[in-house]
TrEMBL record, chain A:
SMART domains: AAA
Entry-linked SUPFAM superfamilies: P-loop containing nucleoside triphosphate hydrolases
Family of this protein: Belongs to the ABC transporter superfamily.
Organismal lineage: Bacteria, Pseudomonadati, Thermodesulfobacteriota, Desulfovibrionia, Desulfovibrionales
Protein keywords: ATP-binding, Nucleotide-binding, Transport
Protein name per the record: ABC transporter ATP-binding protein
Recorded superkingdom: Bacteria
Protein's UniProt keywords contain Cytoplasm: no
GO MF terms, alphabetically ordered: ATP binding; ATP hydrolysis activity
């Protein structure tokens, strides 16, 4: 592997993260003009003692490292359709489910705590193939994934957004978004970061700037940033949203931002407005999907009235924030 | 059915599990044991600690066979390697299918990983984005990196963290495992199922060397100063003040 590159300069050019090998091991950084074989042969006994091995082993490890680097580029799988076939509930009764979702679809997951919503998500994430406690089968584009595909997709298929998630890194909004864009190996990370900032500011009630520290964002701002980031920078084709709270962000706009980015949205919610935004509701009971309810025309019609009521509440919140009055009537 | 079971008695699958303190090693093992148990496979744990640990109680309570030892005044890595063969023999004698050898954080220099046995490193999302680069051979030489505590950080941070793990060790399979809900434990069980069988540890090799010994402090010296230093002593070059 190393012999295909005459010098380290050629390696850095083809595989920039290859530098990490030396930094991580505490080895002296090779001169760009040096040939890999010469570098390893010339390592001092002290340097070798430090990394606990000999030159030949080290050289072989570097070759392995280079060979594995393309894995960094392995992005989330593209999904044209996600199908979930029923298994059995906690009581052993069969789950009658044959659900197919396509990019842009929103399904609401409803049911009390412990009714099986998390397990459903875990089944999707692991592309269950009758081998989890529920016995469900999850198909991508109508096909079961093989073992290698399941492992490669693991952790990349489903993005999660829930209320108890926080930003913990000590970075500014811009620094962080650039780091996220770089982790996707995007060519123009600063531009991607700027786009996410703009979107997040459209969602958030109060604007924030690129130099704001992540940890200083308000609840609404931080939720808005998470949603905009998942919509634009996150590669996962499926998003699980666990109840977007009212904290000053436009919830319907948030969902449409995700679906507009071609995500399949699974949304656990107790919020009637959000539930009606979804085309279908999966009703969970005893560890299984007990019913799939398509939003009826009547329900759909009530969406407008609900949205109005919601807008009123939002206006009240805004007024409260600005020190205004809090007069409310059902009519106006 | 009887024959494969007997085979397993002689060929336990050894898995080394390492990670910084409180990264969630024990929780991950509990969830892994539950998944393996559903598949009719029995996991046992040998836990190497530096000082005290309550983990044995946790494993006992879950009905998971566990042996625990404390290194006390010894270098924890040396303690581990001196007892590794016996730990393996214990696993065989208990008829385990999978033996997890769990070591506490140690000093981050060494790794308990053994050639020919599955090596798992557990790191958590709260430990900072530079951790994957800093953590050393424990992560760099692992076959599987299980990332925990993803439920409390943003999706974006999980992704940046996982990327940095992959960059530090591109060979490894990176999995997200929740010690709370067990999400991801099936994926880990899947990898463990494919782990090589380890008939014996006698003659097996560590993936990384132990620290160089022996100096006077190894032998109990407490006094500071050149006069009290003997053996393997290394001096730092401090920058001199310009005149």
């Amino acid at each position: 592997m190393t012999s295909t590159y005459p010098t380290f300069a050629a390696i850095w050019e083809a595989l920039p993260p290859a530098r990490d090998f030396f930094a991580a091991q505490g080895l002296p950084m090779p001169a760009p003009k040096a040939a890999p074989a010469d570098y390893f042969a010339a390592l001092s006994p002290d340097a070798l003692a430090e990394v606990g091995t000999d030159a030949a082993t080290l050289s072989a490890r570097f070759a392995d490292f280079l060979a594995a680097l393309p894995r960094l580029r392995a992005d989330a799988p593209r999904v044209a359709s996600l199908t979930v076939r029923g298994g059995t509930g906690k009581d052993g009764r069969p789950e009658h489910l044959d659900l197919t979702l396509c990019p842009g679809d929103v399904a609401a997951l409803v049911g009390p705590t412990g009714s099986g919503k998390s397990r459903f998500l875990a089944d999707v994430e692991w592309l269950a193939n009758g081998d989890t406690p529920t016995g469900r089968r999850v198909l991508l584009d109508g096909k079961t994934a093989d073992a290698a595909g399941r492992l490669a997709a693991s952790g990349r298929l489903v993005a999660q957004l829930s209320q108890n998630m926080h930003f913990v890194m000590d970075l500014t909004v811009r620094e962080f978004l650039v780091a996220h864009a770089e982790s996707r190996l995007l060519a123009d990370a600063p531009a991607a970061a700027e786009a996410v900032e703009g979107l997040a500011n459209e969602l958030a009630g109060e604007p924030f700037g690129p130099d704001t520290a992540l940890t200083a964002l308000s609840g609404g701002q931080s939720r808005a940033l998470m949603i905009a980031d998942v919509a634009r920078l996150c590669a996962s084709p499926i998003v699980l949203v666990d109840e977007i709270e009212n904290a000053g962000i436009d919830r319907r706009k948030a969902i449409s931002l995700l679906t507009g980015s071609g995500k399949i949205v699974l949304m656990a919610t107790h919020d009637p407005l959000l539930a009606l935004t979804a085309g279908r509701r999966l009703v969970f009971a005893a560890g299984a999907v007990a019913a799939v309810i398509a939003t009826s025309p009547e329900e759909h019609a009530s969406l407008a009235a609900l949205a109005q009521a919601d807008a009123k509440l939002a206006a009240l919140r805004d007024s409260l924030r600005r020190g205004g009055s809090l007069c409310f009537s059902q009519e106006k | 059915m009887a024959d494969p079971a007997r085979e397993r008695l002689r060929f336990v699958q050894l898995v080394t599990v390492a990670g910084p303190p409180s990264s969630g090693k024990t929780s991950v093992l509990l969830k892994l044991a539950a998944v393996l148990g559903r598949q009719g496979r029995r996991l046992g744990v040998v836990k190497f600690d530096c000082l005290t640990g309550r983990d044995k109680d946790v494993f006992d309570a879950a009905g998971i066979p566990c042996a625990a030892g404390q290194s006390g005044a010894l270098c924890p890595d040396h303690f581990f390697v001196c007892n590794a063969s016996d730990a393996h023999a214990w696993g065989l004698s208990r008829g385990l299918d999978v033996l997890a050898v769990e070591s506490a954080g140690l000093c981050n220099r060494c790794a308990p990983h053994v050639e020919g046995a599955l090596a798992v490193c557990v790191v958590d999302n709260l430990s900072g984005i530079d951790t994957p680069a800093k953590i050393g051979p424990m992560l760099r030489l692992a076959d599987v990196v299980a990332v925990t505590k993803g439920d409390v950080v943003s999706q974006a941070e999980r992704e940046v963290f996982a990327f940095r793990v992959r960059r530090a060790n591109p060979r490894a399979t990176v999995l997200f495992v929740s010690g709370l809900t067990g999400q991801g434990a099936e994926a880990l069980a899947h990898v463990v199922a494919g782990a090589p069988a380890t008939p014996s540890l006698d003659g097996a090799s560590l993936r990384f060397t132990m620290p160089a010994a022996v100096c006077s402090y190894c032998l109990g010296q407490r006094k500071i100063g050149t006069d009290h230093q003997m053996g393997n002593v290394r001096k730092m070059d401090f920058p001199r003040e310009p005149a």
